[in-house]
UniProtKB/TrEMBL annotation:
The keyword Glycoprotein does not apply. One of its GO terms (cellular component) is membrane. SUPFAM superfamilies: Concanavalin A-like lectins/glucanases (SSF49899), LDL receptor-like module (SSF57424). It comes from Eudromia elegans (Elegant crested-tinamou). The keyword Disulfide bond applies. This is MALR1 protein.
Length: 600
């Protein structure tokens, strides 16, 4: 069937209608091949006309010239219990010639389930009228799988939500960036989002969707929170839902489970990218030894064609918990836990060794040399070696995040900052700009430190610093391995910071290849300073900066010997002894520059 457009009349409409169908089964689809070619050939759309419903439901739509080719269209009809027709409408513009054609229309899986003579087994359900035998996992899932509605009888409404009358007992999270929107019909943006809901399959039905247009930006998230459920250890709680992810800039939909209310929770399932213009069913089996909640999190991609929809949320073999989840208490910002010191006679300018009560000069605290017998003077200091394998930051900290909870709260994940990562936690496609293995173990289970470029904006800075280092020796250097790969990698810098004054010691910009690269930064003699790792974000998310295996080598200060310097040694002005071979070598080996004095 084709339409040849060669008239100059504007906005002509041609309609092709199907026979009338009584009903369809829950898996019904229709597909066809179409041809729409010409400079001003106009738009075409498929509409659903249901008896008793005045407003048509748009099922499929294309705009204007699609090129000199046949293309296939796929439409999800689903369960339609009332008589209906399909109408293919062609809207043609004037001025130029054009040809539109349709061929090979196919209906698939549209019949109701066939009757069964018997239906035995704990995992089967026998439909009351149609006598179909269906999987028990399909019971009470807000879909009429039987064709007579018997699988949806006597269901607990507290365990279901189709959004026809609001959010039910689900809630919008208060710590996310924006809210899910309840909607009928198409979303406002072309070429993304559903045309219709999943429950009714018409323009009259409701669903939730995540709007990806401005003012929302990349990595903004909308989170929907379930009621609290009782723990399930020996049995399994089953969660069913339908999702719609259609658009070139679709990013991510995730489902998480939490047992503490002020945390993000544990990832159960996720899906990335465009999944086609259709509703897709997902089933999750949940076990928990504690009361729990389910979080549905939608994340915005790089543009406005990234709308994500959800509908028909239901639980099976689950019961609601009469109470709230616990909250992890956090130490308020600026509050520290007091330390009980042993009896001592130390002054304010001295450090008290924790086990003995001995006094040492405060300048000997955090100098890479333990002067207390219990090494307490080097606790909470920069560590000589850090590989992050114990999942700690080894004393490195981010000033902007001081006082925040160690738990991964939803709200804090939108900040461009440093954090721990590993290859096993990467999402599909992320390995193109993040390390898929660490440097220490060379496995995907190994940990590293990285600045996550999937959040933040171009040019934003993430700093992570050591505690204050009181004194270093003349040969002190920091060695580390860095990974900078991706199309839009920014910069990595190493800074020295004294008070609020910073000086740049090392810098590297742009992609360095998909590999770990060694870097060495000379520190030399310094006092009362911090080392800062600074990541500067590139123009997009495709460029994480990672570091691993950070070591401070030869950094302990020189010791004044309890003997005179030998004939092979030079006596520094501060009484240190150094080899005479180190004289006048442009290196401050004495820590007071007396070995570089031109009068030697």
């Amino acid at each position: 069937m084709f339409i040849l457009k060669n008239s100059s009349n504007i906005s002509q409409v041609a309609q092709l209608r199907s026979p009338k169908f009584r009903q369809t089964g829950p898996s019904c689809t229709v597909s066809f091949w179409y041809y729409n070619y010409g400079f001003s050939v106009g738009a075409a759309e498929m509409q659903l006309l249901v008896d008793g419903l005045e407003e048509p439901t748009v099922l499929w739509r294309i705009y204007y010239n699609q090129g000199n080719q046949w293309l296939k269209a796929f439409i999800q009809l689903g369960r339609l219990p009332h008589p209906f027709q399909l109408s293919l409408d062609k809207i043609s513009l004037g001025f130029y010639d054009g040809v539109s054609a349709i061929d090979d229309i196919t209906f698939e899986n549209c019949a109701l389930p066939t009757p069964a003579i018997s239906c035995e087994g704990p995992d089967r359900f026998w439909c009351r009228v149609t006598k179909a035998c269906i999987d028990s996992f399909l019971v009470c899932d807000l879909v009429d799988n039987c064709g007579d509605g018997s699988d949806e009888d006597n269901c607990n409404p507290d365990l279901q939500c189709d959004f026809e009358n609001g959010l039910c007992n689900w809630e919008q999270d208060t710590e996310d960036d924006f809210d899910w929107i309840r909607k009928q019909g198409p979303t406002p943006t072309l070429n993304t989002g559903p045309f219709k809901d999943h429950t009714l399959g018409t323009v009259r039905g409701h669903y939730l969707y995540m709007e990806s247009s401005e003012p929302y930006v990349f990595q903004n998230r909308a989170v929907l929170v379930s009621p609290v459920f009782n723990p399930y250890v020996n049995e399994t709680c089953i969660f069913r839902f339908h999702y719609h992810m259609f658009g070139k800039q679709i990013y991510k939909l995730s489902v998480l489970q939490r047992t503490v209310s002020n945390t993000k929770g544990q990832l159960l399932w996720y899906k990335f990218g465009d999944q086609g213009n259709r509703w897709i069913r997902q089933t999750l089996h949940i076990n928990s030894s504690k009361p729990f909640q389910i979080l549905i999190e939608g994340t915005i991609g790089d543009g406005f064609t990234g709308d994500i929809g959800i509908d028909d949320l239901s639980f099976l073999s689950c019961t609601l918990y009469n109470g709230n989840l616990p909250i992890i208490s956090t130490t308020p910002p600026g509050t520290s836990v007091p330390v009980t010191l042993p009896m001592n006679n130390c002054t304010e300018e001295e450090f008290v060794c924790r086990s003995s009560g001995n006094c040492i000069q405060m300048t000997k605290k955090c100098d890479f040399r333990p002067d207390c017998s219990d090494k307490s003077d080097e606790v909470s200091c920069a560590m000589e070696m850090c590989n992050f394998e114990d999942k700690s930051l080894c004393g490195w900290y981010q000033k902007a995040l001081e006082g925040t909870s160690e738990t991964d709260s939803i709200h804090s994940t939108n900040i461009f900052k440093w954090g721990l990562g590993r290859g096993a936690n990467l999402f599909p496609g992320q390995e193109k700009h993040s390390p898929s293995f660490d440097h220490t173990t060379f496995t995907e289970e190994g940990w590293y430190l990285f600045a996550d470029s999937s959040v933040g904006k171009f040019g934003q800075i993430a700093d992570i610093a050591t505690p204050v280092i009181s004194l270093t020796g003349p040969k002190c250097k920091m060695v580390f391995w860095n990974y900078m790969s991706g199309a839009t990698v920014g910069s990595l810098q190493v800074l020295s910071k004294i008070g609020n004054i910073t000086s740049k010691l090392w810098t590297q910009t742009g992609s360095q290849g998909a590999q770990w690269n060694r870097a060495e930064v000379f520190l030399g003699v310094r006092s009362n300073f911090q080392v800062v790792l600074r990541a500067i974000r590139g123009v997009s998310y495709m460029g994480d900066v990672a570091v691993d295996d950070i070591t401070f080598e030869d950094c302990s200060p020189l010791l004044i010997p309890d003997r005179p310097c030998t004939v092979e040694e030079f006596t520094c002005a501060n009484k240190y002894c150094i080899p005479k071979d180190n004289l006048c070598d442009f290196v401050n080996d004495c820590a007071d520059n007396s070995d570089e004095n031109h009068n030697i």
